[in-house]
Task: structure prediction
Amino acid sequence: RKPVTVPGLRAMKAQGRKIVMLTAYDASFAWQLEAAGVDVALVGDSLGMVVQGHRSTLPVTLDEMAYHTRAVARGLSSTLLIADLPFMADRDVAHTLEAAARLVGEAGAAAVKLEGAAPHILDAIATLGARAVPVCAHLGLTPQSVHKFGGFRIQGREREAADRVLSDALAVQSAGADLLVLEGVPSALGERVTHALEIPVIGIGAGPQCDGQVLVVYDMLGITPGKRPKFSKDFLAGRHSVGEAIAAFAEDVRSGAFPAPEHCFD
Ligand code: KIV
Ligand code: NA
Result:
């Protein structure tokens, strides 16, 4: 397979080909994603919850993100690798650049993801862009804002909040973001944002109209402790291996079979 690239993802949006993305935290899972032909592997700071057992993503450090990113990079060959900037790694330009140097320069990610559209985030996107570091923005239910939201709650349900998500999406695109992850919003808003943006919009609980879909790999294997999140689906159920489950996810995203209405919000 030819390597997946950032411009290649943009071409996929233009051609109407769905983008398949999953999280990975180690080399073995990275290899499973690679073998199943997943387009993008995300070393998400969700590892703070599903690997480390914390209640939120906030305790994850840059050292930990770099450690997992190095491991995942060793398992990949053609899959595009994106790493999350952990909480407060974007507190100023110097820290943002340091984090990109660690995750992209040393650990092997092709791009970094950061949450929100606050003024300092727009600056960070532009600053990284000026250094030719591709950026994935992340809006909607941004987990690093869990305390401000008062829990992991669907965002953009009221008219004003929905308009704000759309204007934030246009702002991160203008600042130079190459991709957007849109999480935990009504399907109608997912569709609005996807059509308004030139850059690919990858949804998680954001409806079927997004340009691609991402899930936490342990959620879609049904091994995350606790109740399955509504926006996820257990792809291992009735199948014989992790590889088969991941391949089924890829197929269902590409065909539009996932997400189904029961995985979506309104
Ligand atoms: O950390 C993560 O896994 C994420 C995805 C859910 C988009 O940010
Ligand atoms: Na994340």
Observations:
- The mean pLDDT is 98.
